[in-house]
Design goal:
This protein has a single domain, classed as Rossmann fold (3-Layer(aba) Sandwich). It contains 12 helices and 9 strands. The longest helix has 24 residues. It is globular, with a radius of gyration of 19 Å. Bound molecules: S-adenosylmethionine. S-adenosylmethionine (SAM) binds next to helix 1.
Length: about 325
């Protein structure tokens, strides 16, 4: 494992700690994240907490709308899943898809499996009926949930591991990549996106990552990450809405729409946003706006039967 890959994997610790800080303050409910935390959760600034709220809420809304639309007859594949808990949050509300697959580097997968095995709260939701959980420590499979190891830069590895998850090529499938593709060079993410587009007839891709990285704020973000030994190899795609859209269209997806997180934030129901904003006093709104202008959500789709995937995700829906 290279030093750079170790630094990339460490971004999962950052994401987990930031999410835990916001959860502890009451930004959203997550009864499962605590099991992935070792040690003390340091307090983050209000703009970071609000930024994570927008990210987690938007991904949750999209996943729930997707599972609802297909009445659970669908699949979710989370690439670069880290210690994300979306599967458990959906399942606890009765909105789990027919199959849920998580993929990450082997070391992250081993750690996640080890946490799962120690925790009945995490293990028991994995079983659909009377099926068994099989795990060799490097992967875990149940009838409902699969956790597998692959380097996303190696499409053959991704293909082999996903084949073991017994997904159906005809069920609608949602891919989620939350701060992941940016660690791959465009020459590495393009074959991956092409391969994933070709795997399923009807599919959606939700990608959360940086945007507007060419401006001064973006350059400072990049410099900070370089200092930490974790350069953003895919940054050239993270410039504008057009660069994000184009990458999916070049990879064989029908089309893509992009929202900055500032746009997503202001689409959330006003009452919900007010409640969240009351959690912590914060009057430096420009700071939050600037941060949210540097992240975006892209929704790309492949919809040969015209079942309305283009307009499926609505961030304004109160849930
Ligand atoms: C910033 S973390 C985000 C984790 C999770 N998606 C979340 O939002 O909480 C990025 C994750 O992508 C994974 N990742 C990045 N590049 C990868 C690659 N080439 N193969 C497999 N996983 C990768 C990292 O190991 C890490 O878990």
């Amino acid at each position: 494992m290279s030093v750079k890959d170790l630094a990339i994997q460490a971004t999962n610790d950052d994401a987990t700690i930031c999410k835990a800080c916001a959860v502890n303050l009451g930004y959203w409910k997550d009864d499962f994240l605590q099991y992935f935390i070792k040690g003390k959760v340091s307090r983050k600034s209000p703009e970071i907490n609000r930024g994570y709220y927008a990210r987690v809420r938007a991904v949750y809304l999209a996943a729930k709308q997707f599972v609802k639309k297909f009445e659970k007859e669908c699949q979710i594949v989370s690439i670069g899943c880290g210690f994300d808990t979306l599967f458990w949050r959906l399942k606890s509300e009765g909105w789990e898809p027919k199959s849920y697959v998580e993929v990450d580097f082997i070391d992250i997968v081993r750690k996640k499996i080890s946490v799962l095995k120690k925790c009945p709260m995490l293990m028991s939701p994995l079983v659909a009926s009377d099926d068994e959980i099989c795990s060799d420590g490097k992967s875990l499979h149940s009838g409902l949930y699969h956790l597998v190891a692959a380097d996303l830069r190696q499409v053959d590895q991704v293909s082999r591991e996903m084949a073991g998850c017994k997904l159906s090529s005809s069920l609608p499938t949602l891919f989620i990549a939350e701060c992941v593709l940016v660690y791959l060079k465009p020459a590495e993410s393009l074959p991956l996106l092409k391969f994933l587009a070709g795997m399923f007839e009807t599919c959606i891709f939700l990608n959360y990552e940086q945007i507007n990285m060419g401006d001064r704020f973006g350059q400072i973000m990049l410099e900070n990450l370089e200092v930490r030994g974790c350069p953003l190899a895919g940054v050239e795609v993270c410039m504008t809405k057009e660069t994000h859209e184009r990458r999916f269209e070049e990879a064989g997806w029908d089309k893509a729409n992009v929202w900055t997180m500032n746009e997503v934030y202001h689409l959330f129901a006003a009452s919900e946003r007010r409640e969240m904003e009351n959690i912590e006093f914060f009057d430096e709104i420009e700071l939050l706006t600037q941060l949210l202008e540097h992240y975006c959500i892209t929704i790309a789709w492949k919809d040969p039967k015209n079942i309305g995937l283009e307009n499926l995700v609505q961030f304004c829906t109160p849930m």
